[in-house]
Amino acid sequence: MASTSDIRNGLCIRYNHDIYKIIEFLHVKPGKGPAFVRTKLKSVTTGKVVENTFSAGHKIDDVRVETHKYQFLYQEGEFYHFMHTDDYTQIRLVEAALDMPKLLKEGEVVSILINTEDDAPLSVDMPPHVELEVTHTEPGVKGNTATNATKPATVETGAEINVPLFINEGDKVKIETEKGTYKERVK
């Protein structure tokens, strides 16, 4: 058992008969009244995000997890296949367990949270940035850059993102995996 003082990003807890991962929290101490912790929880089974407020000192049931490095092998329907980088065992996960499955390229190494009680994979943590090649985009119009103008582009994994007008087909771009947004062009 843990308390609200142990809450941090990435902590997995048992809440409402499911396992949730804390993705955001804020400790609030109002001028009058007791302190509390406002949290955003993401279900590791369904991917649903809920908000909850815990009063200060509230006991929470934390889940012991281990993080292992896995390499993404291939996608088959709604299943994604991964291989452990140390012992080469393979697992498959449903698409709901991944945050941004469209940005996952074959050979990419990700961190997978494993529940130590039953060795079940809980969630996949993507690297903060991925580098992907632009396979299709319309040519940018010269002189149309008065503001931060963007255009849609399709990358090698099939995901569609908005990029600046100067990006062309064949360019490599760095994409922020948390939001799925363009970060910079890679040379």
TrEMBL record:
Subcellular location: Cytoplasm
Chief subcellular location: cytoplasm
Superkingdom of the organism of origin: Bacteria
An annotated GO cellular component: cytosol
UniProt pathway annotation: Protein biosynthesis; polypeptide chain elongation
PROSITE patterns in alphabetical order: EFP
Cited Pfam families: EFP (PF01132), EFP_N (PF08207), Elong-fact-P_C (PF09285)
Keywords on record: Cytoplasm, Elongation factor, Protein biosynthesis
One GO molecular-function entry: translation elongation factor activity
Span of domain Elongation factor P C-terminal: 130-185
Any GO BP: peptide biosynthetic process
InterPro entries cross-referenced by the UniProt entry: Elong-fact-P_C (IPR015365), NA-bd_OB-fold (IPR012340), Rib_uL2_dom2 (IPR014722), Transl_elong_fac_P/YeiP (IPR020599), Transl_elong_KOW-like (IPR013185), Transl_elong_P/YeiP_cen (IPR001059), Transl_elong_P/YeiP_CS (IPR013852), Transl_elongation_fac_P (IPR011768)
The Translation elongation factor P/YeiP central domain, residue ranges: 67-122
Function recorded in the entry: Involved in peptide bond synthesis. Stimulates efficient translation and peptide-bond synthesis on native or reconstituted 70S ribosomes in vitro. Probably functions indirectly by altering the affinity of the ribosome for aminoacyl-tRNA, thus increasing their reactivity as acceptors for peptidyl transferase.
Family assignment from sequence similarity: Belongs to the elongation factor P family.
HAMAP family: EF_P
Name this polypeptide is given: Elongation factor P
Organism, as annotated: Psychroflexus salarius
Gene that this sequence comes from: efp
